[in-house]
Each structure stands twice: as structure tokens, then as C-alpha cells.
Amino acid sequence: MQLTQRTTGAPVTVTYWMDHAWLGTHVEPGVTLDVADGRIAGIRTGVEAPPPGATALRGLTLPGLANTHSHAFHRALRATVQVGTGTFWTWRELMYRTASRLTPDTCFDLARATYAEMALAGITSVGEFHYLHHAPGGTPYANPNAMGEALIAAAAEAGIRITLLDTAYLAAGFGEKPNRHQLRFSDTTAEAWAERASLLKGDDHTLIGAAIHSVRAVPADQLATVAQWAEEREAPLHVHLSEQTAENDACRAAHGRTPTRLLADHGVLGPRTTGIHNTHLTEEDIALLGSSTTGTCMCPTTERDLADGIGPAAALQKAGSPLSLGSDSHAVIDLFEEARAMELNERLRTHIRGHWTAAALLRA
Questions:
Q1: Are the C-beta atoms of 227 and 237 separated by less than 8 Å?
Q2: Is this model's pTM higher than 0.85 or not?
Q3: CA-to-CA distance for 107 and 73, rounded, in angstroms?
Q4: Which of 6, 112, 125, 278 is deepest in the core (most CB within 10 A)?
Q5: Which residues, 6+ apart, have CB-to-CB distance to 73 below 8 Å?
């Protein structure tokens, strides 16, 4: 929130009066909210009218929403990849074409528009899963983090906080070198990725985290390097996990185990880690994620757009995996639709109605 400044430059408290406000478990009428230095300083209930100098917010006020998983540049694909038929893998080819044309300047413009759309949808923080690092052909920019810094700047201009999840993307598949499209994504090794990612700087509106694109994109013997980088910084670590059955089949063929088991064996799972999608899981996978309190981010509008499948959200939560939501490829930017879709998907998957309350979905 924009704060009024004293002549000394020190922020002062700004008071908002809310007609009705969601307070975590229920709606309360007549609530004042004091904000100081960008943080909530106090909440009072039972205030029937706006106090002098307060900004009145009519209707129902909700906390800002957190969008756990975003690929900002995928917003450019909307209304093009939905044409005709295909699979995740044919969609990916169209995504590569869009990625090949982006520069730091156009990345900034596109991300700013995407984040502005999020802000208009009530989203005040985003987890940006960022893997478009280098120039076409894989040549680093003079500033090796030009693309990541463009995303940080775009979020600042749009007025939302960002967790930049700088992503290790080193291979096209198990034992395969990056293809010509993926050269822009690759730092060649996890050590080189860590060296570049370490140059990124956070601020009051920016948190730097890490991501493993997927078990097919980071060789097994390099997974621990990324996990250790995140652990040393107490940073969040995200990973695309079992979004496609083909990835599971390839992982079993290469390593004789599921992607979840492979991550567990290399120290990737844990309370600061979030698996994105977690769609096609075994019972053992669910137990591993839950017992390690690894999070799950469901992205229902993207998962249905790409025909990925429906993940076992309720079983994961019951096992101990905290749930969150993301708009991912931005076919839709509406976290209320993501929440609604998660509930309705679970009804279709289980043939049972009513898995989460409205309050539980809002917290996700």
C-alpha cells in the first residue's frame, strides 16, 4: 500500500475502515485496519463508522491473494494455444516459439501487463517460476540476470510482491542435452546455475528462491546442488512434479523409481519445498510428500487447459502436504476460479461433494 510520508521521510500509520472484512474464519462488520511501514499494525472490530481521516472501503474486503505459480510470459499464449486439438507436448512447441522471441525489454512489458492483471484480480504476491535466462542460442546477456531483473522490475511497477524462483533447467530429458529452444533456459550445470542465481538480490518487495524445473530437466546427480543452495539461504524451492504420465514413465525407465521418490532420495523434499501440479502420484508418493510436509500447488485452470489430469489434492492435504493455488500459464487469472475448480475437480475424481469449506479454499 502507498503510505503517506512525513517531512522526515518516516512512514505514518494509514487507517482503513472496512464495511465488512474477512478475518480468517468469518466476516466481521465495521473493521478498521491500521497500516504502518507497509505492514498491518492493528485491527479493531465493532467500529460502526469510518474514523476521521480513515479511507472507507465499502462492500467486503479480503486479504490480498498469493499466486504460488506463474510463468508470466505464458500470458502471450492465451487465445492461441486453445485453438484446435493437441496435448501438453504440442502446446510446449508453441510455448517455445513465444520464448524464442522475447528480450529483456519485451519480457518486462509482458510481465508488467500480466502482473497488472493479477493485481486487478486481487493478487498481491506472486511466485514466478523463471527459466528464460539467456539470449537465443544460450549466450548469456552482459547482465546474466537481465531477464530475472526484468521480472522483478515488472512486479514493482505493477504493485505486487514477487518471489523470483530462479529455475535450474539443464536437460531436455533423462540423459538428453537441451534442444535448440532450451538453450536459453540452460546454465549447463547446477554449479553454473547456482553461481548466476547467487547474483540476484531481493528487497522489501522481492524474495529470491529456487526451482528445479522437473526431474527430466535436472540430472539426478545435480538435484542436491539446487536443494543445498536453497537450504543455505532458507529460500523456497519449487519443482514441477508428475504433471504428465510420460514424465513418470521416463523416470522409471531411467532410475527405476517415481519422480517423487527420486526427489526424496536426493534431499529435495521438505517444508520449504513445493511440488507444482503433483498430478499423477502413487500412494507412496503421497505419503512421501505428506510426511515431509512438502507443499502442493494445484493449478486447475492450466491443468484442464493442457489436459494434464486431476491431482489427488484432498489425499495430499490429509497426508500432511499444505495446499496452495497458482494460475500457471494464465489461461485464466482468477484465483477464485482456481479454488472453485479444485473443489469441483475433486468431486469429479472421487464422486463425493464438499471437500473444502469456502474458508479453507480462501486460505489455499
A1: yes
A2: yes
A3: 7
A4: 278
A5: 98, 99, 102, 107, 110, 111, 114, 132
Residues 6+ apart with CB under 8 A from 215: 223, 239, 241, 247, 251, 259, 262, 263
Q: Tell me the one-letter amino acid at 305.
A: D
The grid cell for 52 is: 476521521
Mark the ranges of the chain whose per-residue pLDDT is less than 50. 1-8
Q: Where are the domains of the chain?
A: 13-61, 65-362
CATH 3.40.50.2000, applies to 13-61: no
Q: What pLDDT shows up at residue 327?
A: 97
How many whole angstroms separate alpha carbon 332 and alpha carbon 75? 9
CA distance from start to end of the chain: 23
Phi, psi of 185 (to 5 degrees): -90, -20
Q: Domain 65-362: give its CATH code.
A: 3.20.20.140
pLDDT 10s digits, 225-266: 999 999 999 999 999 999 999 999 999 999 999 999 999 999
Q: Which of 252, 175, 267, 190 is nearest to 222 (CA)?
A: 190
CA dihedral of 78, 82, 86, 88, whole degrees rounded to 10: 30
Single out the residue of 60, 125, 72 nearest to residue 102, CA to CA: 72
Q: Which residues are catalytic?
A: 277, 328
